[in-house]
């Protein structure tokens, strides 16, 4: 799953550490999300969307075929 988390975070002038603190996760979790190494839990996705006042779909981009390894 792709995402715009890094882009949105930087537009708002927030560091990875600040966002991690707000969301009560590690900075490494934010880095892994931004690099696409980790997909958030649904709860974390909702927390991120609520914090930025965006929809989940505006941050996280699902592409067809991902669940079966095609992309």
SSE topology:
Layout: E1 2-3, H1 5-11, H2 16-23, H3 27-34, H4 42-52, H5 56-59, E2 60-61
Main β sheet profile: 2 strands, antiparallel
What is CATH's topology name? 434 Repressor (Amino-terminal Domain)
Under CATH at level 1, the class stands as: Mainly Alpha
Total count of helical runs of at least 4 residues: 5
CATH superfamily: lambda repressor-like DNA-binding domains
InterPro entries: Cro/C1-type_HTH, Lambda_DNA-bd_dom_sf
Protein name: Helix-turn-helix transcriptional regulator
Organism: Aedoeadaptatus acetigenes
Keywords: DNA-binding
Keywords:
54% helix, 434 Repressor (Amino-terminal Domain), mainly alpha, two-stranded antiparallel sheet, 71 residues, globular
Structure explained in plain terms:
By secondary structure, the chain is mostly helical. It has one domain: Orthogonal Bundle (434 Repressor (Amino-terminal Domain)), CATH 1.10.260. It has helices spanning 5-11, 16-23, 27-34, 42-52, 56-59, and strands at 2-3, 60-61. It has a two-stranded antiparallel sheet. The protein is globular. It starts with a strand and ends in a 10-residue tail after the last strand. The mean pLDDT is 92.
